[in-house]
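On clarity, I found the account of how folds are encoded harder to follow than it need be. An entry of this sort, consisting of the sequence and the corresponding backbone structure tokens, reads as follows:
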Amino acid sequence: MDQSQIDLLRAAPIAPRGLFIDGVERSAADGATLDVISPIDGRAFTTIARGTADDMKAAVAAARAAYEDRRWSGQPPAARKKVLHRWADLIEAEALALAVLGVRDNGTEISMALKAEPLSAAATIRYYAEAIDKVYGEVAPTSDDVLALVHREPVGVVGAIVPWNFPLMIGAWKLGPALAAGNSVVLKPAETASLSLLRLAGLAHEAGLPPGVLNIVTGQGSVVGEALGLSMDVDVLTFTGSGPVGRRLLEYSARSNLKRVYLELGGKSPHIVFADAPDLDRAARVAAMGIFRNSGQVCVAGSRLLVEEDIHDDFAAAVARHAAAMRVGDPLDITTEMGAVNSAVQLDQDLAYVETARAEGGEVVTGGGRILEETGGYYMAPTVITRVTPEATLAQEEVFGPVLAVTSFRDEADAMRIANSTAYGLAGGVWTSNLSRAHRMIRGIRTGVVHVNTYGGADMTVPLGGVGQSGNGHDKSLHALNKFTDLKTAWIQL
């Protein structure tokens, strides 16, 4: 990356953006807009359309028409593959511009955003492009006078709602398999991170994706999100976000057409360090990055650090040193290690959790407050809090900010008990030199992902999904195609 290129892109004015429906950009039905506030400096730098329920109905109708006339699903797999590869090419060609646009919108540090957002999205689209002609149906073993075939068919119209922390990456996790399977999609971005997804839709149109196959409706979740959830013409709804919204979407499904709803609802992931960890200093560095990258706004963040009591004090101090040394500031500076919190609302919530932790007996050993307030932006110091009991609010509730809860444990059984003591089950990590212990912990921790002697590593070949109140269904890997396909049996008497 070149800082001068980033600075030029930062300075570029961004025209107001409309909805993307049926292949064209349009204003909201009532002409209303929302200001786009940059967390970098707290200032508005453009607007997006504030969609209405009627706009969402129009988008769903466009998606349904595109699906029914088979303009996309009826194309040969090889033809659909070419379009998706062209789309990935265009994303890669604009990767830096897309990354800067996204950072201006949501505050992720550019050093992380470039790889995690446009480049990740392009790789995801390519992965599912290649899967199109490699996922087969089945011939069932029946008697000789019957031929039984199992076909995979697209579900129809997919509704997708994605969060503000990694809109391109998570958006691609939904769009890649849904479009590869032949569906049409209506996507609702977060109000505070819509710009890069709107551009992504434009690039898909340039790549040859037919009108109506991908539609983007921006606006308030209580309006357009509700309209999408209640639509009688959406077959599957996939969502990444908070538990309360996930519950509401399940209610919308029950009140409408019983559409399938897949939810990824975040977590309170345990990051467990035993005294026999192979490299305690490296473990401390990784533990810090496992919670503080993107200001803790990562669904799999290792927000609960569980440390064996014999090394607890020294290890917590090492993590605090790494946290205090992190360069926090302008996310469009390539030397920044931790950028801005997404919004003023989120920053206030993060700070409130720190005060709750103090009131419940937690000790703030570094950070704990807002910084760089003079910039107008939303910045918080990386915060490490020790003496957090397993029952404390900070150990039970997802903060989604740069706040680490540190808890000690006695032995393996105690670590397992504490790890499984929340309602969540998305991710976790274990540091140990004992291979047998590592396997016992993998089997015993109730979560969708367990990292061993690392934290956060994965690629498109493996699924991501949770258990408990972390949701259901899986993003990534070939398993994600299951959400967007139906099985149809053909029973043929010979």
Observations:
- The longest helix spans residues 110-131.
- The chain has two domains: 3-265+471-491, 270-459.
- The first strand starts at residue 19 and ends at 21.
- The two ends are 63 Å apart (CA to CA).
